[in-house]
Amino acid sequence: MTSNYAVPVNEFSEVKRSIYGRQIRTSDMILKGLIYLCAGLSIAILIGIMGYVFVRGIPHLSWAFLTTVTSATKGTFGILGNIVNTLYIVVITLLIATPIGVGAAIYLNEYAKPGRVVRIIEFTTETLSGIPSIIFGLFGMVFFGNTLGFKYSILTGALTLTLMILPLITRTTQEALKTVPDSYRSGALGIGATKWYMIRTILLPSAMPGIVTGVILAIGRIVGESAALLFTSGSGYYLPKSFFGKILEPGGTLTIQLYLFMQKANYDEAFAVAVVLLVIVLAVNALAKFLSHKFDVEKNS
Questions:
Q1: In what helix (H) or strand (E) does residue 69 lie, and over which residues does it extend?
Q2: With CB atoms counted within 10 Å of each terminal CB, which end of the chain scores lower, N or C?
């Protein structure tokens, strides 16, 4: 028995020819060429910048440069103090910003009712992410440094950078939570789980790839920041005498030291610091890719 919905052979041939043998329009080819051109230019610019920095900086990198502190009495010249200060800034900033940013995202996404208040909070968060970093530095110097009495210190710089990366962590966490299917929520609540238990054991593990990616991208911004830290953390390059005592002391990061080298016309040393910064940024991006892929594999398995 022949089906009434069978397609005749000649009509099938016409459909096949119309799909696979259709004429390619010139405008499509031009647009495709422009897309490939833009992609190629982006890659070429990145390779050009990195290649120039590496060519200028690698010859001036040495183990002594990375593992010693500049000292006129000892006759040493290095950036170890700046590397340690950068680690201090990164760790303290993340310890403060991550819980606040993730908590704010959970409140906005899971507890707050959609309305004017939520829209105002989201609008202010987006506005905060667009403020120039030097304005954050000015505010941090006046409020954290002068009003609260922290002066030029690593803590002042970390608190200032906390304000800068909060929008990034909050927004990425919100988007990660929105990707979790609603069936996970309704299923957990349907078997009697409390809302906080559901968030802690189901939502956060499911959204972890996005959260971790946001935190690691925030690390990249902290490492590359200089304008805000010029006003807040100072330019000290000495190693800490005690772990907690260093928090209230001035500390210049690698970007600050790069700026000072350029200001003093020490271009070779500046490019050497730039190589270190590029390696750190590349490592942070690679770590973000690796952890995101790892969490995705674990979630889908």
A1: strand 69-71
A2: N
